[in-house]
From TrEMBL:
<comment type="similarity">
    <text>Belongs to the BshC family.</text>
</comment>
<feature type="domain" description="Bacillithiol biosynthesis BshC N-terminal Rossmann-like">
    <location>
        <begin position="46"/>
        <end position="425"/>
    </location>
</feature>
<dbReference type="Pfam" id="PF10079">
    <property type="entry name" value="Rossmann-like_BshC"/>
</dbReference>
<dbReference type="GO" id="GO:0016874">
    <property type="term" value="F:ligase activity"/>
</dbReference>
<dbReference type="InterPro" id="IPR055399">
    <property type="entry name" value="CC_BshC"/>
</dbReference>
<dbReference type="InterPro" id="IPR055398">
    <property type="entry name" value="Rossmann-like_BshC"/>
</dbReference>
<dbReference type="Pfam" id="PF24850">
    <property type="entry name" value="CC_BshC"/>
</dbReference>
<feature type="domain" description="Bacillithiol biosynthesis BshC C-terminal coiled-coil">
    <location>
        <begin position="427"/>
        <end position="586"/>
    </location>
</feature>
<dbReference type="InterPro" id="IPR011199">
    <property type="entry name" value="Bacillithiol_biosynth_BshC"/>
</dbReference>
<protein>
    <recommendedName>
        <fullName>Putative cysteine ligase BshC</fullName>
        <ecNumber>6.-.-.-</ecNumber>
    </recommendedName>
</protein>
<comment type="function">
    <text>Involved in bacillithiol (BSH) biosynthesis. May catalyze the last step of the pathway, the addition of cysteine to glucosamine malate (GlcN-Mal) to generate BSH.</text>
</comment>
<keyword id="KW-0436">Ligase</keyword>
Length: 586
């Protein structure tokens, strides 16, 4: 890690990669955490602190540690600056469909309300020396969970950083996975409600197999849904602005992806962020030649990825792809529905449920004459992305890193190297109320974020019982059983059925004690309900649903209390990408 011990000169960029920015240079002389916090303060007075956080994903943990066994599944380490210099040389030697892509990106981003910074970056993409940092996500409702915004922050930050280090233009590109058709993953949001998360689900009915790019918004339903969401927010100085702003974006949007893209451009003005919809039919025309290559090299791709998956499982890693050697790794629209294809033993391509059957020649003809019918899956999407864009680096979430570890043979099959795959930044937003409650109960924010405070809540409640009710009740039960023993023995000596009745009598007495204990505990909870609600608030804020805040919380909860500028400011900062998590104190 780049710090006082390793960053001793300008040559520090050749060691394990971290941000080459002002706070690191100063850390040579001022290495304490106060320096880190102060330099991370911005106009909103947020403070960003690094936090160690163990990933539940073993592969991601080993990847961050750069274990040779797992790094062999990738072409570059994202944590070493020389990876980006080498990748840049590779990209300069390759050809990309820049002219056609620039034309399409101009059209789409203008329609989505892009500002001049974005348009300027799209223009730069026409230059053969311009490269991109890329990452993507599904088009979530109201931008989806916070992790989507954290990924965009990562893309913008790494692109800016590498542009300065490499002395070349590096633009941030967000790949909207508009071709995905799992509407159930994107049609809802969560909001805190009485210290628990409440799910709000958008009720527009859609086919299960229609891509997000093709979902036409029912404006009336969307406005009704927005009103329901706004009504669930506590009234603040920002609430009316949220309603009017989102309503305005909604009224200008035709499809689900339009709504998402316009929302993102609103949040990230003047950052130069470029958006690309992978479900755009016009993009398919640019992708046509590469679809043909994916079809022609299907066996090499599928068997290679399957082999890599088997190797990873033998190394003790989880099977995240469920890859099979006959996977086609392409979808085709059949009767209006996006259908996954497989390759059978005769070499024919067929729908997974036999919806249709194609010869290779027929599928190649579709790729040539109707490429809009085809789309990629998790295996071929990264390959198509690398065909379209000069990808200097890819920003990936934990799950993506796990499945990208399977993809090296797929890249090799089409003559590409994998780009450096950088773990995205991860944040938890800590508001002043929650921060004060942590201090009041002497709780560690790191512990609360990593594993919650349910155990501490139980300990707090137990400490209010002197002597502890559970201990006393068990003592009473044991004493009662001892006193009751002569009666049980006497009853049993008279008749077996009386012995059974005596045993039952003892159980009834114990149940009466249990009933009393429950009433006592309930009364104690009532007496300490305020304190217990504080623990529930901390849990809901920092470890909701027993996970990270970013996986469930919606933008509205933060916007409603701290304004919308926070996302823009976060994207303007430099970060140490080797740090697994950051706490943002607001």
């Amino acid at each position: 890690m780049c710090g006082a011990s390793s960053c001793v000169s300008a040559s520090f960029c050749s060691v394990r990669f971290t941000s080459c920015c002002l706070w690191q240079v100063l850390s040579l002389h001022l290495s304490d955490s106060n320096t880190y916090q102060t330099l991370y303060k911005g106009v909103l007075n947020m403070v960003i602190q690094p936090m160690r956080l163990e990933s539940p994903n073993k592969l991601v943990t080993d990847y961050r540690a750069e274990l040779p066994s797992i790094m062999g599944k990738f072409d570059f380490s994202p944590f070493r600056q020389e990876s980006y210099a080498t990748r840049l040389e590779e990209l300069e030697a390759r050809k990309f469909p820049r002219e056609a892509l620039v034309e399409l990106l101009h059209k789409c981003n203008r329609e989505w309300g892009a500002d001049q910074a974005t348009i300027h970056n799209i223009d730069k993409l026409a230059d053969s020396k311009t490269v991109a940092v890329v990452g993507g996500q599904q088009a979530g409702l109201f931008t989806g969970p916070l992790l989507t915004l954290h990924k965009i922050t990562s893309i913008i930050s790494l692109a800016s950083e590498q542009s300065k280090i490499l002395g070349t233009t590096v633009i941030p590109v967000f790949w909207i996975a508009g071709e995905d058709h799992d509407v159930e993953e994107i049609n809802h949001i969560f909001l805190p409600n009485r210290n628990k998360l409440k799910k709000f689900k958008w009720k527009q009915h859609q086919s299960e197999k229609i891509a997000a790019s093709d979902i036409v918004l029912d404006n009336g339903l969307m406005h009704d849904f927005l009103k329901e969401v706004i009504a669930a927010l506590p009234e603040t100085a920002y609430t009316k602005d949220i309603h009017s702003t989102v309503s305005n974006i909604m009224d200008q949007s035709e499809t689900f992806v339009d709504f998402f893209a316009k929302f993102i451009h609103f949040l990230y003005k003047n950052t130069g962020l470029v958006l690309l919809d992978s479900g755009d039919p016009e993009l398919r025309q640019i992708e046509r030649p590469f679809f043909r290559e994916l079809i022609s090299k299907q066996q090499e791709i599928s068997q290679g990825v399957y082999g890599a998956s088997q190797e990873l499982q033998q190394m003790g890693y989880a099977d995240v792809l469920g890859a099979e050697s006959e996977d086609a790794n392409l979808f085709c629209y059949i009767d209006g529905e996006r259908t996954l294809l497989m390759r059978d033993s005769e070499g024919k391509w067929r729908g997974k449920a036999d919806e249709a059957v194609f010869t290779e020649e027929e599928l190649l003809l579709i790729a040539e004459t109707a490429p809009e019918r085809l789309s990629n899956n998790v295996v071929t999407r990264p390959l198509m992305q690398d065909y379209l864009l000069p990808v200097l680096g890819f920003i990936a979430g934990p799950g993506e890193i796990a499945y990208w570890a399977n993809l090296k043979p797929g890249f090799q099959a089409v003559g590409f190297n994998m780009p450096p795959v950088m773990p995205r930044l991860s944040f938890t937003m800590l508001d002043s109320k929650t921060e004060k409650l942590l201090g009041r109960y002497r709780l560690s924010p790191e512990k609360a974020i990593a594993s919650g405070v349910e155990t501490e809540k139980i300990h707090y409640l137990a400490a209010q019982q002197q002597p502890p009710i559970a201990v006393v009740s068990e003592q009473v039960k044991r004493a009662m059983a001892d006193l009751h023993a002569p009666l049980r023995h006497s009853a049993a000596s008279i008749a077996d059925d009386l012995g059974s009745l005596a045993e039952k009598n003892l159980r009834h007495l114990e149940e009466d004690i249990d009933f009393l204990v429950k009433r006592m505990e309930a009364r104690i909870k009532e007496q300490h309900s305020v304190a217990l609600s504080h623990f529930d608030h901390i849990q809901c804020t920092l470890h909701p649903e027993n996970g990270l805040q970013e996986r469930t919380w919606s933008i509205f909860s933060i916007w409603n209390t701290h304004g919308v500028e926070i996302w823009h400011e976060l994207a303007q900062k430099s970060y140490d990408f080797t740090t697994p998590h950051h706490i943002v104190t607001l």
